[in-house]
DNA sequence: CTTGCCTTCGTTTTT
DNA sequence: CGAAGGCAAG
């Protein structure tokens, strides 16, 4: 007899999703397949964490619940909430609950890494495989390209990032190379055969060197599910599989789920097709749109009562989505009343945009809304530049999510390369990078040293006994090899073993980088401090790669937890979050939608959804800014660096009717440059640009 | 073979 | 404007 007090703060729909179970089984031990279509702000997280808690309270073993999320933040949040619900319920029953945890909550990639580590022997994988982040994977592709002689100048070959992107699409879409090239990379079609060879070689190298890229974590997991014996064993470990953000899963992930729950029994997926914004990463909206066809007897529950935003904001969001092509029809209804109309601000240029937004943020703060409750959102990281400059100038603290990451800094990568090489001496990418830190060691010496290492059964210790390369700084060389060997040994325990490596690297900084290097040394110390938070070296590497610190400065969040700061974030990074006030920058055609994705109708739909995600982050205040004249980042040679653009095509008259409009900034006085690109000439007339606003 | 300087090229979103 | 690739000097 289950006490139901914990279900009281749910609405009827939510409760039906939380308690959904097969009627003929006791205590909800299993259920038919369940799809929860949860509109923005309708309590998706609440519902999923309640379901997990409810299952545990009904007697399901928490270790037999698999909870797959999109980001680590989401996994932690849900685990935390589920624990809170369980604790409260157990306390109410007068039972002293031991804290409930969900040991199998995590991202697809993180859970995949964990399972592959465990099943490595059965899969012919080295259990100490390293995970390549994006940049490392691209570097390995580059090495392969050299090895195959594809880097010839006779014919332009796609660059490494493009090669990796193509590869990734092929893997995640489970598609033929030719098809991917034709639809998404038409300018590379001529290189079909060479790419095929390249990918074959890349795959072979990864296998040989015990390296897995992001896609491999899913691919190998999916391959494992194709092996009936292994699949059955894995499926038997879990009674319930709960999936968050199902609209952002791809075909590989769908295949994995199919293997874990072949009939759909125990499978519960939650998502919102209107918020599918990861198509560029091969996510497939058809997963969620076709769920009921995929799993016979699936139950669909729709959540439409919105607890986040005011109705005025939801009206704008609903109107925006009314034009969408394919979708689960839903109208969000606010539980919070009418509220203020959102505002559409027409700014003269980027500077006015920045100034206006900051003034509004400060004004809002005067009414008692903390900076942390306010967010400036944008499509591309660089759109925030002018706002950032202004924030620094006015000494307003902020934190930026998306864009340049802490781990992208060259010196941080250096230290990681040392640790990665130590963890897996066959990690060619880490080895190359580490070796080339030594003055006088370039690609060729690094290559030869690596070959010697391979020929000598990957023994770092014996590599140290061999003479240094001719031109190498002998002292630094010895320092490097000793340092890495000690790291491999793990002497002194984690993270103390990291200290000598950090010190050695800091000693190299003046040679390697321009002065001043104090900031770089500080970053290295920060990384050492971060390392201390992880149990051991391997967990540090794995988790850091799968979940890099989200924001610049995020790595010292413990210290600044109570500080107030304004949030700057890409729309993508803001998914799943909410703020009292949202200011959306640069709502211009070419950005919303992006000029790069405006080609196919499907891409265009995704751009609309991106705007929808941005709108629906706001609780009380939404301001959308369109600068008329802005800095153009491409075609710099073609003359003037400012162009006049058009307001986003998604801001249709019907959508604009949901907003109140206002102009800010000085009237246009700058003469129009005759050198502006011809394609933009039609928009050069400010009067015409202004008229277009009200068409 | 390494390194530093010069040219050219291409630009989104991220687990 | 920044990164990456090519070329020449040490």
UniProtKB/TrEMBL annotation:
GO terms assigned for molecular function: 3'-5' DNA helicase activity; ATP binding; ATP hydrolysis activity; DNA binding
Statement: the UniProt record of this protein carries the keyword ATP-binding: yes
One GO CC annotation: cytosol
Residue ranges constituting the UvrD-like helicase C-terminal domain according to the UniProt record: 311-576
E.C. numbers: 5.6.2.4
Catalysed reaction, written as an equation: ATP + H2O = ADP + phosphate + H(+); Couples ATP hydrolysis with the unwinding of duplex DNA by translocating in the 3'-5' direction
Recorded superkingdom: Bacteria
Name by which UniProt lists this protein: DNA 3'-5' helicase
């Amino acid at each position: 007899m289950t006490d139901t007090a914990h279900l009281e703060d749910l609405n009827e729909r939510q409760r039906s999703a939380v308690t959904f179970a097969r009627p003929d089984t006791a205590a909800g031990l299993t259920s038919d397949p369940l799809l929860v279509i949860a509109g923005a702000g309708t309590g998706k997280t609440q519902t999923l964490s309640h379901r997990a808690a409810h299952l545990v309270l009904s007697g399901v073993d928490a270790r037999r619940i698999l909870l797959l999320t999109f980001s680590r933040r989401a996994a932690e949040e849900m685990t935390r909430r589920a624990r809170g619900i369980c604790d409260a319920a157990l306390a109410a029953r007068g039972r002293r609950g031991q804290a409930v945890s969900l040991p199998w909550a995590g991202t697809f990639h993180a859970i995949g890494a964990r399972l592959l580590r465990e099943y490595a022997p059965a899969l012919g994988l080295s259990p100490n495989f390293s995970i390549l982040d994006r940049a490392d994977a691209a570097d390995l592709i580059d090495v392969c390209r050299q090895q195959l002689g594809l880097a010839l100048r006779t014919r332009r070959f796609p660059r490494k990032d493009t090669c990796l992107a193509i590869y990734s699409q092929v893997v995640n879409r489970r598609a033929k190379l030719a098809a991917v090239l034709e639809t998404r990379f038409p300018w590379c079609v001529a290189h079909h055969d060479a790419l095929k060879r390249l990918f074959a070689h890349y795959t072979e190298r990864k296998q040989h060197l015990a390296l897995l890229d992001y896609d491999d974590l899913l691919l190998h997991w999916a391959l494992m599910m194709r092996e009936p014996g292994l699949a059955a064993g894995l499926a038997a470990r879990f009674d319930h599989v709960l999936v968050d953000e199902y609209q952002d899963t791809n075909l590989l992930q769908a295949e994995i789920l199919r293997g874990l729950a072949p009939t759909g029994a125990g499978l519960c997926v939650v998502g919102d097709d209107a918020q599918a914004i990861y198509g560029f990463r091969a996510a497939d909206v058809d997963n969620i749109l076709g769920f009921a066809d995929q799993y016979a007897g699936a139950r669909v529950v729709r959540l439409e009562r919105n607890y986040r935003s005011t109705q005025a904001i939801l009206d704008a969001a609903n109107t925006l989505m009314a034009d969408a092509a394919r979708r689960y029809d839903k109208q969000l209804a606010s539980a919070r009343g009418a509220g203020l109309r959102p505002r559409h601000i027409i700014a003269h240029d980027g500077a006015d945009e920045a100034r206006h937004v900051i003034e509004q943020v400060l004004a809002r703060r005067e009414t008692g809304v903390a900076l942390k409750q306010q967010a400036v959102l944008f499509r591309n990281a660089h759109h925030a530049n002018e706002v950032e400059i202004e924030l620094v100038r006015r000494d307003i603290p902020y934190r930026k999510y998306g864009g340049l990451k802490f781990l992208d800094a060259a010196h941080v990568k250096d230290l990681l390369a040392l640790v990665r090489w130590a963890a897996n001496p066959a990690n060619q990418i880490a080895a190359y990078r580490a070796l080339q830190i030594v003055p006088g060691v370039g690609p060729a010496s690094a290559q030869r040293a690596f070959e010697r290492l391979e020929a000598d059964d990957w023994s770092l210790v014996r590599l140290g006994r061999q003479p240094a390369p001719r031109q190498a700084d002998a002292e630094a060389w010895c320092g490097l090899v000793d340092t890495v060997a000690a790291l491999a040994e793990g002497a002194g325990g984690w993270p103390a073993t990291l200290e000598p490596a950090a010190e050695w690297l800091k000693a190299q900084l003046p040679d390697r980088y321009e002065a001043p290097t104090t900031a770089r040394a500080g970053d290295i110390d920060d990384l050492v401090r971060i390392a201390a938070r992880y149990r051991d070296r391997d967990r540090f590497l794995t988790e850091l790669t799968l979940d890099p610190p989200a924001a610049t400065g995020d790595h010292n969040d413990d210290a600044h937890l109570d500080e107030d700061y304004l949030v700057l974030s890409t729309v993508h990074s803001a998914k799943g979050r909410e703020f009292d006030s949202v200011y959306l920058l640069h709502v211009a055609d070419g950005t919303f939608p992006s000029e790069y994705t405006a080609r196919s109708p499907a891409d265009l739909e995704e751009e609309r959804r991106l705007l929808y995600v941005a709108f629906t982050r706001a609780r009380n205040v939404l301001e959308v800014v369109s600068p008329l004249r802005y800095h153009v980042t491409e075609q710099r040679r073609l003359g003037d660096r400012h162009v006049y653009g058009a307001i986003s095509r998604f801001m249709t008259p019907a959508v604009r009717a949901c907003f109140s409009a206002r102009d800010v900034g000085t009237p246009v006085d700058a003469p129009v440059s005759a050198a502006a690109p011809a394609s933009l000439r039609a928009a050069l007339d400010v009067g015409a640009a202004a008229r277009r606003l009200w068409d």
